[in-house]
Specification:
The structure holds two protein chains of two kinds. Chain A is built from five helices and four strands, in the order βαβαβααβα. By secondary structure, chain A is α+β, with helices and mostly antiparallel strands. Chain A has a three-stranded antiparallel sheet with strand order 3-2-4. In chain A, helix 3 packs across helix 4. The longest helix of chain A is centred in the C-terminal third of the chain and has 13 residues. Chain A starts with 7 loop residues before the first strand and ends with a helix. The N terminus of chain A is likely disordered. Chain B is α/β, with parallel strands linked by helices. Chain B has five helices and seven strands; from the N terminus they run βαβββαβαβαβα. The longest helix of chain B is centred in the last third of the chain and has 20 residues. The radius of gyration of chain B is 18 Å and the shape is globular. About 7% of the residues of chain B have low confidence. Classes of the chains: A alpha+beta, B alpha/beta. Strand 1 of chain A pairs antiparallel with strand 3 of chain B, so a sheet runs across the interface.
């Protein structure tokens, strides 16, 4: 099959991730950030910032999803959401929420998606 | 996971930047067994080169991995490949490929919350994983379509035989696809959207 269709590997360094988040973890019940919440910087990175915070501000000049930030930083989503919560507390980023929770999505939204896909 | 120096982290290439008007994002999950073509399908329809996000295995791994007697500290990371389609100036669709095997279900919590729905990508040579996945999606109330990725050596299954084999309700669409093809993969997503649309048209029960 496809050589990039790998599903898992070992070797994340837990200590490094612990240091980056100062021991905090993204709680499963934390709902501020979805994988597809769009993040936009509202400030320039400052030299005094933790490097990971600065990196997020640097790459989010245009909207980026939480998943994309995780991919570009090479950090797990649970770590990225902790860092984003710090930045949001300081009003350094804007978080554009994903679709509100509903049993089924809104029909207008589905129509928009269908229309967009048909143009592909 | 590779450790990257944050001072050298670069964001997306200029061509991949979303416009500042992008205000809302939705997601669809493509789930299937190892090697069924999830990554291929994501890559076929994505407007960006697919990216990989990883998550560390948490307590869900207990009982799966035997940790007894292991001195070396390790944690398992699970990779999810994802891609992106800009629907219009405001709306963005993200596609996540995720492994269907039970030991990876710990990933599903953040993934399916708020997802529009799922595509179950099926390889008819290995239906077992699909059983587990379909049961799990039904339990969680996630709407889905079944897409049969056609491999040259796949046994040909008439749709209704497959429906019976997978014990699928009649309203769940089954579509054949070629995950390598952009058009074919797009049509699978459209089939999912039509299915969601039909579900939303039904009176609430």
């Amino acid at each position: 099959m496809n050589s990039t269709d790998r599903d898992w590997d070992d070797g994340t360094d837990p200590e490094r991730l612990y240091v980056i988040t100062r021991g905090r973890s993204g709680l499963p019940e934390q709902t501020t950030f979805d994988l597809v919440t769009l993040i936009v910087s509202r400030a320039e990175p400052a030299p005094t910032m933790q490097p990971e915070h600065a990196a997020i501000l640097r790459i989010c000049g245009a909207p980026l999803s939480v998943a994309e930030i995780s991919a570009y930083l090479g950090l797990p989503v649970s770590v990225v959401t902790v860092l984003l919560a710090d930045l949001l507390d300081e009003h350094l980023i804007e978080a554009r929420a994903c679709v509100p929770q509903a049993i089924l999505p809104d029909r207008a939204l589905l129509e928009a998606v269908m229309h967009g896909l048909q143009k592909l | 996971m590779d450790s990257r120096n944050c001072d050298t982290v670069t964001g997306p290439p200029v061509a991949d930047l979303l416009p500042d008007t992008a205000a809302m994002a939705v997601k669809v999950v493509i789930v299937g067994g190892f090697g069924v073509g999830k990554t291929t399908m994501v890559g076929s329809v994505s407007e960006i080169r697919p990216l990989t996000t990883e998550e560390t295995m948490t307590q869900a791994g207990v009982g799966v991995d035997d940790l007894a007697g292991i001195e070396r500290k390790t944690s398992t990371t699970v990779a999810m490949d994802f891609g992106r389609i800009s629907i219009n100036a405001e709306l963005v669709l993200y596609l996540f490929g995720t492994p269907g095997q039970e030991r990876f279900w710990f990933l599903w919590n953040g993934l399916f919350e708020g997802a529009l729905g799922a595509v179950v990508l099926v390889d008819t040579r290995r239906l077992e994983v699909s059983f587990e996945v379909i049961g799990r999606l039904e339990d969680r109330g996630v709407p889905f379509v079944v897409a049969v990725n056609t491999f040259p050596e796949s046994p040909s299954h008439p749709t209704e035989d497959l429906r019976a084999a997978l014990d699928l309700p009649v309203e769940v669409p089954i579509v054949a696809c070629d995950a390598r093809s952009r058009e074919s993969s797009r049509d699978v997503l459209l089939a999912l959207m039509h299915h969601l649309y039909n579900l939303s048209a039904q009176p609430a029960r």
